[in-house]
Specification:
Elements: E1 19-20, E2 29-39, E3 52-57, E4 63-67, E5 72-76, E6 82-87, E7 99-104, E8 110-115, E9 120-125, E10 130-135, E11 146-153, E12 159-167, E13 170-178, E14 187-192, E15 198-202, E16 206-210, E17 218-221, E18 228-231, E19 242-249, E20 255-263, E21 266-267, H1 270-287, H2 295-305, E22 311-312, E23 315-320, E24 326-331, E25 337-342, E26 348-354, E27 358-362, E28 365-371, E29 377-385
Length: 387
C-alpha cells in the first residue's frame, strides 16, 4: 500500500510517520456495550425499513438513516422518535434514484447525500431542508484510464473521487483523488493497492478472477470526510502472529499515522476449503463449453491456478467513529465479533465485544444494523461503557 504524498502533516504528540507499535502501558481497556433503544419494526408499519445502507449518528444519540429501498433519508431524535424525512424517488432537486451514502458536510451543520445514478452531491440542512446540489460529472472525476467509483465529500468542503485503474483484465489500485473546482489538476490523497485479491487464469490469454477468500484492503472515510483510513488484510503465510497495517491521511493526503495491529491468523479449515473448491470447480466446469475446452482441460486449469491460503486475518469490518478513532472488527473463535478500538493517535486503547452488524459509532453510543423477521432491518443503539 503506497500513499504518493511525500509530505507528512501535523502528527499527534508521540506519533511518528513510521510504523507505530505503541500501546497503553496497562494494555487496551475492556469496554462493554449495553443495549439502549431500537428503531424499526417488522410489522409492516411506517416504522419498517427496507434496506438501510448507512447509519450517521450524532454524539447526542440522534441518528440519520439512509434507506436505499425507501429512497429516503430519515432523522431520528435521541429518543428514537422520527423527526423528519427527505428524499423520494426521482431526478428532481432533493430527490434520489439510488442514494448510496450520507455524511456530515463541512462544519457538521449540514449533511450530504450521494447518488449511484445521478452525478451529483445533494446538500441538506441537519433539519432536512434542501440546500443545493453539486454536480460531479467531468472535471477529472473519472480519468479515461479508470472506472468511476464514487464521489466522497471531504471535511474541508472539497470533494474527492474514488476510482480504480483499469487495463484490460487487470485491475489496478483504488485511488482517492481530490478534485477541486478551482484547485487545478486532481491530486491523489490515498490509495489502496488492490480492491480485492486476484489470481491469473490462463485461457487463450491471461485473465483474472476474484480470489476465493476475500483479503483485499478496506478503504474507509470518517463520517466528516477525513481522516481517511486504509486497512490491509492480506492472507497470512502461517499460523504465527501477524499484523494488519492501518494507514491514515487527512483531506490533503498528508500522512497522519501508520500502525501495525497484531492479530492471530485463523486457519481455513478443510470444510471451508472443500466448499470453496467445489463451488469454484463447478464454475470452471461451466466454462468448458464456451471456452471450447474439455472438462479435463478445465479441471487441469483449475488445479494449477486456484490457490487457497491456509490462514487468513479474521477481519470483518472497519467502522470509523466521530472522534477520529476507528473500530477494527474481528471474528472471534466462537463466531462472534470483537473490536479493537484504535485512537485518533494510532494507539490500540480498548477491546469490546460488538454485534456483527456494527455500523457506526458516535459519542457514547454504538449503532448496529441487524435483521429481524423476514430480513427486515432493525437499528439498535448501544451505550458504550468505558472502564
Amino acid at each position: 500500500m503506497v500513499l504518493l504524498s511525500a509530505c507528512v502533516g501535523d502528527l499527534p504528540e508521540g506519533t511518528t510517520a513510521g510504523v507505530q507499535y505503541a500501546e497503553p502501558e496497562a494494555g487496551p481497556a475492556s469496554w462493554t456495550l449495553e443495549p439502549d433503544i431500537q428503531i424499526g419494526s417488522v410489522e409492516g408499519t411506517d416504522d419498517a425499513f427496507v434496506r438501510v445502507v448507512r447509519v450517521l449518528p450524532a454524539a447526542d444519540g440522534s441518528v440519520i438513516l439512509l434507506d436505499q429501498g425507501l429512497t429516503a433519508v430519515m432523522r431520528y431524535l435521541s429518543s428514537g422518535q422520527l423527526a423528519g424525512r427527505v428524499g423520494g424517488a426521482g431526478p428532481g432537486p432533493g430527490e434520489f434514484v439510488i442514494p448510496t451514502d450520507v455524511g456530515w458536510w463541512a462544519g457538521g451543520d449540514s449533511i450530504w447525500v450521494t447518488d449511484g445514478v445521478l452525478p451529483r452531491v445533494t446538500i441538506f440542512s441537519a433539519e432536512g431542508e434542501f440546500g443545493r446540489t453539486i454536480p460531479i460529472d467531468g472535471g477529472g472525476f473519472s480519468p479515461a484510464s479508470m472506472t468511476a467509483g464514487w464521489a466522497q465529500p471531504l471535511d474541508d468542503g472539497a470533494i474527492a473521487s474514488v476510482v480504480q485503474e483499469t487495463g484490460g483484465w487487470d485491475w489496478g489500485p483504488v485511488r482517492v483523488l481530490r478534485v477541486g473546482n478551482d484547485e487545478g489538476p486532481s491530486m491523489e490523497i490515498a490509495r489502496a493497492e488492490r480492491a480485492e485479491s486476484r489470481i491469473p487464469i490462463q485461457w487463450d490469454q491471461p485473465g483474472m478472477m476474484a480470489h476465493p477468500v476475500p483479503d483485499g484492503p478496506f478503504l474507509v472515510f470518517s463520517p466528516h470526510g477525513s481522516p481517511i483510513f486504509v486497512v490491509e488484510r492480506e492472507a497470512a503465510d502461517s499460523g504465527e502472529q501477524a499484523s494488519v497495517r492501518i494507514r491514515t491521511t487527512n483531506a490533503m493526503g498528508e500522512l497522519l499515522w501508520e500502525v501495525d495491529l497484531p492479530y492471530q491468523p485463523t486457519p481455513i479449515g478443510n470444510a471451508v476449503r472443500d466448499s470453496i473448491n467445489d463451488a469454484t470447480r463447478e464454475m470452471f466446469q461451466g466454462m468448458a463449453s464456451f471456452r471450447d475446452r474439455s472438462a479435463r482441460e478445465i479441471d487441469a486449469i483449475f488445479e494449477r491456478t486456484i490457490t487457497i491460503p491456509s490462514y487468513h486475518p479474521p477481519l470483518r469490518s472497519v467502522v470509523p467513529a466521530d472522534d477520529g478513532s476507528i473500530w477494527v472488527v474481528w471474528t472471534d473463535v466462537g463466531g462472534g465479533s470483537e473490536a479493537t478500538v484504535v485512537s485518533r493517535d494510532g494507539v490500540a486503547i480498548a477491546q469490546v465485544s460488538v454485534p456483527g452488524g456494527l455500523a457506526a459509532v458516535a459519542g457514547d453510543y454504538a449503532w448496529a444494523i441487524e435483521s429481524g423477521m423476514y430480513e427486515v432491518p432493525i437499528i439498535h443503539r448501544h451505550r458504550i461503557v468505558r472502564r
